[in-house]
Amino acid sequence: MERDSSINRKAEEFLQVFKKGEEFTKELLRENERLRFRVAELEEALTRSADEARARLYEERIRQLEEELRSLRERFSQVEEENKDFAAKYLEVEEENNNLANLYVASYQLHSTLDFNEVLRIVLEIIINLIGAERFAIYLMEERTNELVAVAAEGLEVASIPRVRLGEGIVGKVAKEGESYFASSTDGTDDLLSPIVCIPLKIKEHVIGVIAIYSLLVQKRGFSNVDYELFNLLAGHAATAIFSSRLYTQSERKLTTLQSFLELLKEKPRR
Fold this sequence. Notes:
This protein folds into 2 domains: 1-84; 111-258, 2-Layer Sandwich (Beta-Lactamase). The chain is 65% helix and 15% strand. The chain is α+β, with helices and mostly antiparallel strands. The protein has helices at 2-110, 116-131, 169-177, 225-266; strands at 133-142, 147-154, 164-165, 181-182, 197-203, 206-216. The mean pLDDT is 81.
């Protein structure tokens, strides 16, 4: 009996140990499951963190690229504006070169002849073709009467243009004071004493006449810088050319008259 009781007690102890081992195993399995779950969570968190970091990196790169694109667009706009400026300056330089060539040709033509009528014709062509005037007149000072007399005109009959006394109207005032006149409007006028532009023909400070413009051609909307340069050219070079050709023509006439007179004196009296 005692032996059986000892065996039963040992069997019971074994069962207790076995149960504890079973519980420990179950606890280990539960802890393992918990750890695996935690590892899975950590791996997921790590993956999510890596994705977020990668997303932030991508966002930063996209922001940098957008900034570079914006900078390139600004630079492109600047270059485009610079190209426009260069093109405009090129056109200005080209126009200026053409204007200088026209000024040179006009100046050369003015001094290419000493024929008074030819010089007047050249001045008329300059005013028509280079300035774009439609109706205008060239007045010269008559020293004997101190009046301005029209010697050439375009769009007007020279014979119908009255004499202008020194100081009378804008034409006479410009001749008296020697200063150019430009009306505030380029609309044409029929008042011969009040042109829209009046330029004195001066040799140094001596006024020998004026150019009075009364209307412009239809395509001429106003005056440019080269027009004012042409007016300055006319004020000086045209005055010199007209004055020189007039003196030359007068001297030629006097010389011809004198030669004719000498020829008469040389003739032998008839028997």
